[in-house]
Amino acid sequence: MSKLISLKDLEFLLYRVFNAEQLTGLPHFADHDRTTFDGILTTAERIAEVYFAPHNSKADEHEPQFDGKTVTTIPEVKEAWQHFAKAGLLNARHAYEDGGMQLPSLIHMAANAFFMSANPSTAGYPFLTSAAANVIHAFGSDEQKATFLPPMFDGRFAGTMALTEPDVGSSLGDLTTKAMPAADGTYRIKGQKMYISGGDQDITENIVHLVLARIEGAENGVKGISLFIVPKFITTPDGTLAERNDVQLAGLLHKMGYRGTTSTVLSFGEQDNCVGYLIGDAGRGLMYMFKMMNEARIGVGLGAAMIGYRGYLESLDYARNRPQGRAPAEKDPHSKPLNIVEHADVKRMLLAQKSYVEGSLALCLLAARLVDEQEAGTDAQQREDSGMLLDLITPVVKSFPSFYGPRANDLAIQVLGGAGYTREYPVEQCYRDNRLNPIHEGTHGIQSLDLLGRKLWQHNGKGLKLLMARIHATLASASQKPELAALVGEYQAQLKTVQETTLLLGGALQKGQVTEALANSALYLDMMGKTIIGWLWLEMADKALDAFANSPVQEEQQFLAGKCQAAQYFIRWELPEVQHQARLLQSFDRTCLDMQADWF
Ligand SMILES: Cc1cc2nc3c(=O)[nH]c(=O)nc-3n(C[C@H](O)[C@H](O)[C@H](O)COP(=O)(O)OP(=O)(O)OC[C@H]3O[C@@H](n4cnc5c(N)ncnc54)[C@H](O)[C@@H]3O)c2cc1C
């Protein structure tokens, strides 16, 4: 069994739950079939296992170093990067004419899952680069595309996203980095950016920073923000490097996890000569960046899911092989100890992990499937609907795995007992790595405000209606199966509460009670996350039962039975928490709101 992901699970999700083969019916993906999909996944698995996984812990122990002039990373990072690029994975989703493979997002996401599980910090470099290249591809001029995309796709250049500043994090509308127009139509950038991942490294020849800045004289707030390409080395249109641009590494940050990815403080324009190229129209920078951020948010969800997944598989393997203790009713001290996987309380911890991480992976694949429907669907209405649903669930795709992935890792440590707390086992690193995910790409709190304050009500609540329609389709199918009747009933009861709560909060927002309605938004984000994951578990159980009758192999049947048991666990043990959350939300509980800063 792969230590990175359960291949059975991946196959089940791709081909039974999300019907990947159906995508080959769309003209854009017509050249693909199951064989090409499986070929990509096998390649990804091999590169992840051979070039990414082996140095995961070494990169953690040997953080990148900065001697005041250059940054040094361990050599394995560059080697992994080169193999990733050579396999065509940096632009796998792009069109053939751009050198891509026209791969569905669904398969691309599944391929990326191997890398996130194997070594999330080394995977950070290619994933950021792909996302930056996608922004240039979507909004850059022809010249910008011709100059920067080929070397970003073939691995000569890497990309970053430079939003955050020392004094500006969540509230991007306040950012202060400036852009001064120059006579030649370019801009001179001045300011400091902080926490920029991959902001400097020794892996690629050049680094393409996408920098948010305010053109001199532009209005305050988000409407005054523009987006610039700022290369580390000035690049001629044929992709060759000219002089060094005025971007300096002020220092590296030292982190709890994700240590293999450089985290940088960058100074732009210390010599007043930092050249930047405006992308698209002035004042639309944040909108363009949101393209990258939405993609990155789904990517963060996947990373969190897969670090959680890795910990789950490690703890499962340990539990199957660690003899300790006897059954509560066993009184004979000479009897053979049980492997801890037999203890009900250990099963609880494994089931919780399984339900969080497999549910999270399903959620990320759902998002990827929606991307495919939105971008390549042949029906205009369906494309629009898929886009709206994706938009609605993006905060949940980012946040549920980010919150429950670290919880899964916490439980993995607990399953290993003392061993879990030592650095001899990988679960403690998983926990440290995963703790980043609720923080970057919009914190948990910011995602909750985005969901409850904005996303739910866009397009007259159409996204929510589309979500409910999908949930009801699953309920209709699952309720036909006697084995699922009880679970369907339990789910419906919780769903009713969630719908009532949503209506009430929506009404309050409409009446202008913004402060009260949004005060407990984190509870709502969790409630919606549980509702969506509970739905996906029902969907998985439904599909597992469909498959059961045609699966004579015992191992396959055990896998499917495990899916049904995990669905039962999540819906019976985790989902009912929405009742308590609903009580607080529906009563507009003011405990947190009324607490005074001086009372702490
Ligand atoms: C390892 C790492 C890698 C990163 N990589 C990048 C990168 O590549 N590029 C980049 O641009 N940035 C990057 N970041 C920055 C990251 O996106 C920010 O740290 C994040 O957006 C939060 O900003 P902040 O740290 O300034 O926290 P703050 O914005 O100060 O937030 C602190 C706390 O206050 C809460 N809060 C803030 N505002 C509100 C509000 N209005 N309502 C309710 N609660 C609020 C937050 O939820 C949080 O809990 C990275 C950060 C880290 C740690």
Widest sheet, order of strands: 4-5-12-7-6
User: How far is it from the N-terminal to the C-terminal residue, by CA?
Assistant: 51 Å
Helical residue percent band: 55-70%
Q: Whole-number radius of gyration?
A: 24 Å
Report the strand count: 12
Unreliable spans are none
| Global mean pLDDT | 97
Shape: globular
Largest sheet: 5 strands, mixed, barrel
What do you see in this structure?
It is built from 20 helices and twelve strands. The protein has 600 residues and is an alpha+beta fold. The strands form three sheets. The chain has a five-stranded mixed beta barrel. A two-stranded antiparallel sheet has the order 1-2. Helix 8 runs antiparallel to helix 12 and helix 17 runs antiparallel to helix 18. The site of flavin-adenine dinucleotide has 20 residues, from strand 3, strand 5 and helix 13.
What tags apply to this protein structure?
single chain, alpha+beta, 56% helix, 12 strands, 20 helices, two-stranded antiparallel sheet, binds flavin-adenine dinucleotide, 600 residues
Brief characterization of the structure:
This protein has 20 helices and twelve strands. It is an alpha+beta fold. Flavin-adenine dinucleotide binds next to β3, β5 and α13.
